[in-house]
Amino acid sequence: MTFPGYGIGARDSFEQQLAAGVCTHGEIRQVLAAALEEPGLHAVLSEYLAVTLEAVVVDEVFDADGLDLQIVRLVCEAGIPVTLIGDPWQALYGFRGARPEL
């Protein structure tokens, strides 16, 4: 078993993990984004959240990107109470698309 760490190994190691079916964070986000665009899957995700979550707290919401905010909207649509916490001057994740103005 491979454990994540600083400077995760060489390309060969990475490709072995993918060949074994291990997905990256980015791939999971791509799959989730695609699922949210599909009306039937959007409804399934909403229903799943409604029966599995009591409330959601989103810390550092100004670091959110478009997908993060789609998930927050989905949670709200499912009728789940949401608390947003953030400081617009602390948008640290601009490199991954954080847009404080959203």
Helix-strand layout with pairing:
Layout: H1 11-19, H2 25-37, H3 39-52, E1 56-58, H4 66-77, E2 82-84
Provide an overview of this structure:
This protein is mainly alpha-helical and about 100 residues long. It has four helices and two strands; from the N terminus they run αααβαβ. The protein has one domain. The radius of gyration is 16 Å and the shape is globular. β1, α4 (about 65-75) and β2 (about 80-85) form a beta-alpha-beta unit.
Strand content: 5-15%
Specify the helix fraction band.
Answer: 40-55%
The spatial strand order of the largest sheet comes to: 1-2
Number of strands: 2
Helical element count? 4
Number of domains: 1
Shape: globular
- What structural category arises from helix and sheet content? mainly alpha
- Low-pLDDT segments: none
The Rg value, from CA coordinates, equals 16 Å
Straight-line N-to-C gap: 39 Å
Largest sheet: 2 strands, parallel
Q: Write down the secondary-structure element order.
A: HHHEHE
Kindly state the mean pLDDT as a whole number?
82
Which labels suit this protein?
4 helices, 2 strands, 102 residues, 47% helix, globular, mainly alpha, 6% strand
How would you summarize what this structure contains?
The protein is mostly helical and 102 residues long. It has helices spanning 11-19, 25-37, 39-52, 66-77; strands spanning 56-58, 82-84. The protein has one domain.
